[in-house]
Amino acid sequence: MATSPPDPGAKLDFKKVLPVLVIILVDLIGLSIIIPLMPLYAARFGASPLIIGILGSTYPAMQFIGSPILGRLSDRFGRRPILLASQIGTLTGFLLLGFANSLWLLFLSRIIDGISGANISTAQAVITDVTNEKARTQGLGLIGAAFGMGFILGPMIAFAILVATNDNYAAVAFTAALFSLVSIVLTFFWLSETHTSEKSTTPHRSPFSFQGMFQALGRPTVGILLILMFAQQLAFGGYEQMFSLFALNRLGMGARDTSGLFALAGLFIIVVQGGLIGPWSKKYGDRWLVMLGLYCLAIGLILTSTTPQIPVPWYNQAKIRSEMQGQASMQLINVELPSESNRSWPGILWILFASFPAALGGGVLHPAINSLITKSAEKDEAGSILGISAGFYSAANAITPLFFGSLFQWFGAPVPFLAGGILLAALWFIAMRKVNVSQSI
User: Fold this and answer.
1) CATH superfamily of domain region 14-194
2) How many Å apart are CA 379 and CA 253, to the nearest integer?
3) Quick one: which H or E segment has residue 259?
4) Mutual orientation of helices 49-77 and 103-115 as an angle, nearest 10°?
5) Residue 295 contacts by C-beta under 8 Å, 6 or more apart in sequence?
6) Whole-number Å distance between alpha carbons of 256 and 278
7) Considering the domain 210-324+338-441 in this protein, what is its CATH number?
8) Whole-angstrom Cα distance, residue 253 to residue 359?
9) pTM of the prediction?
């Protein structure tokens, strides 16, 4: 029997997508360099865990407002100029962060970066422009790979900079600014405009609306999956936001130590997303992946909350206080530091043990839930329903630092992680009964 020739339209044109993938990678390296640093940066200026939580929510809240606006502008004026404008905003935010000598400048830097933060969404639009439906999934999947690689390299670079500069936080911020400048140069000289005038005359709907979000919640399967998307990011995002302060409180770990842990977790997530999700999805299905992710993330957060307050063997309280205070401010940090009297290995070994199920759950849940959402919706609404999913994801990112920061400040360091684990464990039981991809929508 004759075999049909391969469909050329199903093959991804790497020459077209390579520039935007490199640009995303460089952008994400710059962003992830400062992620482990921000809570400790704010602590240097006497910020409480609640204020640190508010600072953490500033970027996603501004992005929640700015990204849809810039997305519509990219439909009107083209991808390239909007991408350049957003990258210039990111560069400005990083430079301001490097020169910051007060807490309000940290807030201003995150506001500027967040309101102009359409880098990734515009890059995704570029991929959509240069691919057809058959190759688009692969193209968008490569963005996820670039994400993961950026979140591995960023913390590793931050660790190296902190070691080389004796914990100079400003040097890390300026390094992030350098990567942002490189991404601007690459965009200006390498990326061609992909949004044609013919496409720009087509009417576009807003990526999502509040009415559409609430209507989607009422749909069987889709509704519970959207709740799971929000809840898993509330828990995992809070884990990421507060982990630096938690490690400082329980283990006496400074910025360079937590950067190393972030890099290790990022490497594990890359292994999960790049090598395990595909085979597991084919063998067991996306529903099984969602249940696995909920279970593992719940266990990881609960185990993290029980980390004993035993500082690492190399802990030096005076050195940590000096690092937190820096040279710009002599205010005492607003997080209790452990005593030096019981330095040992059990604390760091325990948190490493707890990090593996947490990273596995966090790495599996987002892509598995979105995959189930698309399979539970009509084909012609896949884009809009994923836009609604992104809305819940962004809303969780804006809320979680406030939620976790409040619990951290008022009830102690372990409580937010325990609360997140219990929430996900309860949702695991609900999802076991409610998530049924064969259900009608």
Assistant:
1) MFS general substrate transporter like domains (1.20.1250.20)
2) 48
3) helix 255-271
4) 30
5) 361, 425, 428
6) 33
7) 1.20.1250.20
8) 19
9) 0.73
- Judging by beta carbons within 10 Å of its beta carbon (0-12, 13-18, 19+), is residue 429 exposed, middle or buried? exposed
Q: Average of pLDDT values for 246-264?
A: 88
Burial class (CB in 10 A: 0-12, 13-18, 19+), 141: middle
Query: Per-residue pLDDT tens for 65-106?
Result: 776 677 667 777 888 888 888 889 989 999 999 999 889 999
C-alpha 260: how far from chain center = 17
**Residue 118: per-residue pLDDT:** 59
Instruction: List pLDDT tens digits, range 405-420.
Output: 889 989 999 999 999 9
Reduced to 3 states (helix: H, G, I; strand: E, B; else coil), residue 178 is helix
What number of CA atoms fall less than 13 Å from residue 285's CA on the CB side?
A: 9
Q: Do domains 14-194 and 210-324+338-441 have the same CATH topology?
A: yes
Q: In angstroms, how far is the first alpha carbon of the chain from the final one?
A: 40
- Mean pLDDT computed over every residue of the chain: 80
Where do the structural domains in the chain lie, given as residue ranges?
14-194, 210-324+338-441
Q: Which residues of 27-47 are buried (b: 16+ CB within 10 A; e: fewer)?
A: bbbbbbbbbbbbbbbbbbbbb
Q: Residue 234: helix, strand or coil by DSSP?
A: helix
